Queue: 2 jobs
Job 1
Amino acid sequence: MVADAASYSPSAGKPAQVVKDWLKHSLPIDVRDFERVSQETLSLAHEPDYVRGVLSGKLANGFGNFRADVAASLPYTSGAMLAAAQEAIANHQMACAPVSGFHHACYGHAEGFCTFNGLMVTALALRHADAVRRVGILDLDHHWGNGTEDIMARLDAGWIRHHTSGRRHPSPADAEHYLVGLPKLVESFGDCDVLMYQAGADAHVDDPLGGWMTSEQLLRRDSIVFGTCAALGLPVAWNLAGGYQVDAGGGIGPVLTIHRQTMEACVAAFVFA
């Protein structure tokens, strides 16, 4: 899943760094292998010619380039999300795909560091396999999940319940009110067979492309989501989503800290509850 996207966004190279950080801090995670998705599976959510063009290097990816290593990584990125959803359904609790770069990808084009919409690929693959009746997508990345909405509209996917907090361009003044209503929002997904949760790190107030929640508020956000899912018995498969802060050395230390905090909230809700 790791590639050099030659981009401002760290998402293509982030998975290995995040997992290394979790292991370094002795978080009780079980790292599993998984299968990449096929071109046909990607085409459940995207225009087939677009899928072929990206994978062959003839069309630009979400980073705006034609790099072969990025193209090679993409079936694994969506494959990780699908595997996490399948595992969460199987264990009736949760699983994580340490990936990002999904929700801006539209039916027939890349956008905003996103090439293939692994959220929609996963939902449609599960439905195609008769593994689900209803799927939820709780997108708490700072930005609007326009690509998810585009694919849902084109494919008339009314069986998917989608919430994207970025649609209303939230500000720090909105954070406390939003957190008060978040438990009921998560409960509204209670009839879904699985919930996909985008735990965006770019919602942090210091993120250069985001900014509406403090570190403490992000921890409450994640604790509410995981705690409510655990109480409902709602399987949740979550991913990393955006995050663009850098430290003094140019590394993504601040982003790793936020993702570690999310995993800690997940562990608290499901492992040590």
Note: The first strand starts at residue 94 and ends at 97.
Job 2
Amino acid sequence: MSKENNAHYVDNKKFYTEISAWKKEWDESIAKGEPTPQCTHYLGECFVKISNHLAYKSNFVNYTFRDEMILDGIENCLRYADRFNPEKSKNPFAYFTQITYYSFIRRIKKEARQTETAMNYLQSIDLQQLLDEVEGDSGSYEYLKWVQTQVDLNAKEKQNLNSISDKKTNKRRPKYFDKKSEELDI
């Protein structure tokens, strides 16, 4: 497949000329006190391609919130497009790929915090009481039982991690320190 037909290909030379021209317009409008220009269609297309392609890397592909990661990447590219300096770098593809990469990392951390908050909330609820109340009904509430097992597994995993981090690791003194101290004593 040729590079022109590849859906995820961004021509770095064309991207550089477009971003340089847009940045020049941006700087002129700031100097004149006029409203700043919007990103061109081509620049927006490049930001979308960069975000979509980066989302298919092996370290991002299996997240359920991948669409949010892509949207965060595009948003951050648009937000920081005016900070690209064509005089410093001739590689806007790398610049915006890094912006997108770190926006993905921020989204993963944010989702992890939200999951932790949800687990803490579920632990604070007395699920056993809910199970006892609904089992009095003739219905089957397998989902609540599954949630209870997930909360219990999370609590055990958290306890294991805390016990591992509480252990004090003894550092071994390197042997060459002993040799040097013997040499100094002689």
Note: The chain has a mean pLDDT of 83.
